[in-house]
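Quick one:
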Amino acid sequence: MSEARFPGYAEYQNQDYEDALPKILLAAEQGNAEAQCMAGTLYQLGLGSAANSDKAVAWYERSSAQGYSVATNNLAGMLAVAGKVEESQRLYALSREQGFIHGPAVGD
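Output:
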């Protein structure tokens, strides 16, 4: 079983998304940046609830504002798909500055 970093983490790792979502949302509301990013992912992909891009973006923004690079990268991807190329490129670059090494290199 996965180490429980916060409520809902183990359920998320075990792909029990319906049980994970309310627990993750509680941790996210309490300011946990990783939980905020996970909430964004769940809403983006429609895991544990219907897909909701607005909620996904909102959670990614909250997590990114705390410097969580995965959320910044995921937010950049959502903005790229939405055609917001300049903002997307800015956020991809920011995610790399925050330490995310798997995203696309921008301006290289």
